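[step 3/7] fold_predict: job queued, chain A
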Amino acid sequence: MFSIGDKIVYPMHGAGIIEGIEEKLILGETRRYYVLHVPYGEMKIMIPCDSTDSVGVRGVIDETDLMDIEDALRCASTQMSDNWNRRYRDNMEKLKTGELIEVCEVVRNLMRVDRIKKLSTGEKKLLSNAKQILLSELILVSGAKAEEVLRKIDEWVFFEGA
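[step 4/7] structure written:
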């Protein structure tokens, strides 16, 4: 159970702060919902309190984990399918896990592929979504502004050892 003020991650949407807990009657059923404010993109999301485990909601990483994120973005790209459709499905599965290291892998790999050959429209959208997920959590953890975090992501993904 989370509380108002907790910072959590909702897979496929990103990290935010619980602003409230509300009861809503939807389709004849009254349920409690977390009201999540995602600062990057100014989104508000309602998440059923009783399904947080099944959808993979988790707390944000600790500031001590930022070095692991930097390492994940700097390390060599992982092997991906040459078929964009297969690559898209594989990357989508990684995003659905909600694990930030998996999200980093998607961002890193797709940014590097895009630099060499342009991504398909679907993959561009997937990269944009993955970046937003990564960005929202890094902003909450570090307290930095979006522009600064985006600059760091670019720096880490394209450092000279990559």
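[step 5/7] annotate
The beta strands are 7-10, 14-26, 29-38, 43-48, 58-59.
Residues 63-157 form a domain with the Methane Monooxygenase Hydroxylase; Chain G, domain 1 fold (CATH 1.20.58.1290).
exit 0
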